[in-house]
Amino acid sequence: MTTTSELPETAPETRYIGKPIKRREDPRLMTGQGSFLDDIRLPGMSYAEVVRSPYAHANIKMIDTGAAKSMPGVLGVFTGDDFMDINPLPCAWQAGKVTNNVNTPRVLAVDKVCQVGDPVAVVVAETPYQARDAAAAVDVDYEELPAVTDAKATTADGAPQLHENAPNNIVLTWECGTDADSVDAALKAADVHVTEEIRNQRLIPTAIETRGSIGRYDPGTDEYTLWETSQCPHVHRLLLAAFVMNIPEHKLRVIAPDIGGGFGQKIFLYWDMPLVLALAKKVGRPVKYVEDRSSNYLTATHGRDHVTDVEIGATNDGHITALKVKTWANLGAYLSTIAPGIPTTLYGRMVAGCYKIPNIHVDVVATYSNTAMVDAYRGAGRPEAAYLVERVCDLVAHATGVDPAEVRRRNFIQPEDFPYDTGVGMLPYDSGNYEQAFDRALEQVGYKELRAEQQRRRRNSDPKLLGIGLSSYVEVCGVAPSKWIGLPGEGWGAGLWESANVRVHLTGKIVATTGSLPHGQGHETSFSQLVAEELGVPIEDVEIQHGDTAGTPFGFGTYGSRSLAVGGIAMYKSLQKVKEKARRIAAHMLEASPEDIVWENGKAHVKGSPEQAKTLGEIALQASVAYDLPDGMEPYLDETTYYDPPNCTFPFGTHVCVVEIDRETGEIALRRYVAVDDVGNVVNPLIVDGQLHGGIAQGLSQALYEGAVYAENGELLTGTMNDYAMPRASMVPTYELDRTVTPSPTNPMGVKGAGEAGTIAATPAVANAVLDALRPFGIENLDMPLTPPKVWAAMHHAAGAAQAAD
Amino acid sequence: MAEAPAKIETQRITLTVNGQEHAEEVEPRMLLVHFLRDQLGLTGTHVGCDTSQCGACVVDVNGKTTKSCTMFAVQADGAEITTIEGLASEGAYHPVQEGFWEMHGLQCGYCTPGMIMSSVALLKRNPHPSEQEIRHELEGNICRCTGYQNIVRAVQYAADKMGESGAASAD
């Protein structure tokens, strides 16, 4: 295990950092005292319900709101024509250096709908029940059009066309890596050549809290307030004010209360946000809109949905020499806020995984279809990349007869190779020791013994098929240096730094604000640990504030596992500034020079004279009353940092899954799940482990259970939780976690990020385990989710084919 | 086109929630969860799925674990109801709440009230559940954050704790 970084300044042992501190958020949440969006009731609140399209693709011929308007309690009924002064939502991250054929949603659809659930009218009423009644009374006449839902099929000539500016429903075509001709030559020269179609199915994020928003307008001040289920309220304020509603940014305040999970879906700007603000102004009352579950499934964003044709070249001894990837990424009916960035920068540039692959070429075709929008979902691009390259490793193992563990070992990037450039346009990987984590995982699971057991069972035609699945992953976190993500080449066109303000009040109590936005990750705890550690105060004296654009500096929010690696570092730097100022004040109070002041146990004293110490509280008081400060010094301990990271961070690790499949039924039992992750230095191991647990559950659930299914006509068949297979407690195993620690050299805390690692690693580990078990049947690949009927059918089809060949 | 319905008559119900008696007028169609949240202001009980899958709305009605999104308020006339707000007594957390805190059994906290209410009921039925029994009996509650492992540990913690205090009071 590698050593920790420079924290803290003086104490050899930490008091808070690295400790499994119980979460400070929990008492309110476990007693029902949390304040989630739907818990908020403002005086005079009214309620909005929308009328949604039952068709996936249709022209709107007529909307009759007459009956609805006369219903009890109705305050107003509106259609898209009433909001033509509100711009379509912006697509903020367009893929770099290529044409993006952009179509984004309006607050309500006008003339045409492109997905089931497209909102076409809205009712505002005194109660939610009255709003529902009236919404049901709005009469809409549609002319149904043919629909298309599949990522590849939507680009075919003759497929139904969604938008005039996107021929063949193509949003963009994009490429990265070595030029295609060189990769073709390398493929031709390879000992072994494998091709496969790999599908990464569509998922629905399914935070247990759906989305919603509350709008309020104050005519006295011309100010709007928006409460929303959001992972990034500051960004939403900016986009809403400047791009959607054309109102001054300072006349809009955005508040994210307690958030009941996000997983990416709550990053994005949605139509209901400007809608409730506009409605609040129209009806003169606060307006609340909360999705029901089906509405969430229909029109909030989904994730993944890639179809990839991959060509692999390898040597006979398992070295991967070339990878040619063509991916169709289904982005749905319209472009969500950062949709084009996911299959390009966050997927295409990560397909090398943790391997040295000399020739890689990636083509991405992003497409429209009559389905829900697809954007970042936990992992966002990296799970698709990890799934691809980890399936590639097993395909190479299969084709060469080299053990899957050996294939990975032979191709790993080595510790001395860092910083490492994979040649596909990603920033250089910061640090890593892939083989160390790999070895530890294999040792913990007992890989050799398992392979021997597998051999034995195969020889004896055991009724249970044993499968061992490996997944070594690297992911990109801590997004992102503005110099990289802001450049036209990556297409974001804006920074991605983070802010933190630390104020030590007169009484010595500390309020720290962050632009990050927790929605289950426990920032109030881990950021408090950081503050308490650095300033040497009890954690009870620290309050972390977030989520309200009033009173906190601009921040970009929480996604891409960036909170600690970017927001935490902003906090760390503000704390250093506070300490430096406090040191100068302490020196003044103790009549010493600042260089002679040392911090110990939360007190400042002159080197060698610990008996005459000043506490932070005493220094804060001195800074506040301000009549006796060093010449020229401003009063108060109040420091702000805007931190722009020099690089991203690259966590990694190896997960191993062991399954047993019943030959008779295709049923899959998860026997073991071992995960060795390296997320750099850890502030709160309790929270990090929790993040890994949840991530693994989501990842393995993609492999075995989940999948959004559309009928050919574009109807979402998995439109409720009755139909969409959410994992339950009995459907997941006990996770056996271990860690290696390779600090990131990117930031002074050596942290990397842990929010998405589990999701990224788990899907290929489980899928590879199932396919490993099925190897005696000659099955090369199966599309997820790997359900028992699918596995059973594949076994029987393979057995039948073998018999027929005899 | 749908006809505008006539004004919906309300009905008077009397019930006890967390030890406090309430007499309220409700529409017959009002769901219990909306009554608890919107009429009584007990917003700790959540709605997650509308279809009785996720269990975020679980409360105790006359000793029975109940998904309050699938019951009308009028059906609770005369009932004794406990919600998450009524679980801690005299400032002391219920051992299950304590277990969720100790074992990091919650992250976003949205499923937590229902998960805790179901866990309390589980331990009433079966004070010494195996891990498999815990996982099976919590199938009616969905959590997207934790991957369930620490929820299982939280219930085990509470079982141990309640076992100890049960043993102590038996002495």
Q: Would you write up a description of this structure?
A:
The complex is a heterodimer of chains A (806) and B (171). Chain A is an alpha+beta fold and 806 residues long. Chain A has a domain at 26-34 and 497-643: Aldehyde Oxidoreductase, domain 4 (2-Layer Sandwich). Helix content of chain A is 27%, strand content 23%. The longest helix of chain A has 27 residues, at 563-589. Chain A starts with 25 loop residues before the first helix and ends with a helix. Chain B has helices at 32-39, 95-102, 112-125, 131-137, 149-170; strands at residues 11-17, 20-26, 58-61, 64-67, 80-82. At the A-B interface, α1, α3 and α16 of A face α1, α2, α3, α4 and α5 of B.
Q: Indicate the radius of gyration of chain B in whole angstroms.
A: 17 Å
**Relative strand content of chain B:** 5-15%
Q: What would the principal axes of the Cα set say about the shape of chain B?
A: globular
CATH architecture descriptor text of the domain at 26-34 and 497-643 in chain A: 2-Layer Sandwich
Q: What is the 3D form of chain A?
A: globular
Q: What proportion of the residues of chain A is helical, as a percent range?
A: 25-40%
**Spatial strand arrangement across the major sheet of chain A:** 3-5-1-12-9-10-11
Kindly, what is the distance between the CA atoms of the first and last residues of chain A, rounded to a whole number of angstroms? 54 Å
**Overall SS class of chain B:** alpha+beta
Q: What distance lies between the first and last C-alpha atoms of chain B, to the nearest angstrom?
A: 70 Å
Biggest pleated-sheet summary of chain B: 5 strands, mixed
Features:
heterodimer, A: 806 residues, alpha+beta, Aldehyde Oxidoreductase, domain 4, seven-stranded mixed sheet, five-stranded mixed sheet, 18 helices, 27% helix, 23% strand, disordered N terminus, B: 171 residues, Ubiquitin-like (UB roll), DNA polymerase, domain 1, 5 helices, 5 strands, globular
